[in-house]
Amino acid sequence: MIELPSKLEKRQYKLDFLEEALKPLGFSIGGNWDYDHGSFDYKMDDHVGYQFVRIPFKVVDGQLDTKGVQVELMRPYILSHKYQIGLDDHVHIGNLSASFDQFQEPQDPDATVPSEIIPVGKQIVKKVEKLLLTSQNKQ
Fold first, then answer.
1. Quick one: which of 8, 43, 111, 129 is 20 to 30 A from 23 by CA?
2. Which of 23-27, 30-34, 117-121 has the lowest mean pLDDT?
3. 3 vs 37: CA distance, rounded Å
4. What is the CATH number of the domain that holds 48?
5. Is there a domain that residue 66 lies in?
6. What is the sign, positive or negative, of the torsion defined by CA atoms of 11, 15, 21, 25?
């Protein structure tokens, strides 16, 4: 993980505004959200795993599943996941539904970030800063 200090840290916005602003840039809400925190993820590369710019946030007023929730942005960072090649050795078979977990466990959930990705991540954060800090719709 590589932290990317940003002017966005500790700034507060309505979550729906952030979604509308960041989706066109290629961000999506990451799958690791809970009722009081979450993140926006931007997939940069998938070379021997996946590299993301992640902008985490925490709830300051409301809950994530309610309209109008206010969130505070935290320090962005670059995250790299390296996935296993071949079969997953931790497959769990569901005995009631005869289903199985098709997703592999990461070989290394905090893999080394390739050095050529770091400037790209910094530029993505700068683009988000420019968009959000100059926006008149800031909440």
1. 111
2. 30-34
3. 18
4. 3.30.310.100
5. yes
6. positive
Q: Give the number of other Cβ atoms within 10 Å of residue 32's Cβ.
A: 11
pLDDT at 105 over 80: no
Please give the model's pTM, rounded to 2 decimal places. Answer: 0.77
Report pLDDT for 5.
Answer: 96
- Mean pLDDT over 8-28 rounds to 95
CB burial readout 97-136, b (16+ within 10 A) else e: eeeeeeeeeeeeeebebbeebeeebbebbeebeeebeeee
pLDDT in tens, 26-52: 999 877 778 889 999 999 877 667 889
Q: Considering the domain boundaries, does residue 139 fall inside one? A: no
**131/134 Cα distance (integer angstroms):** 6
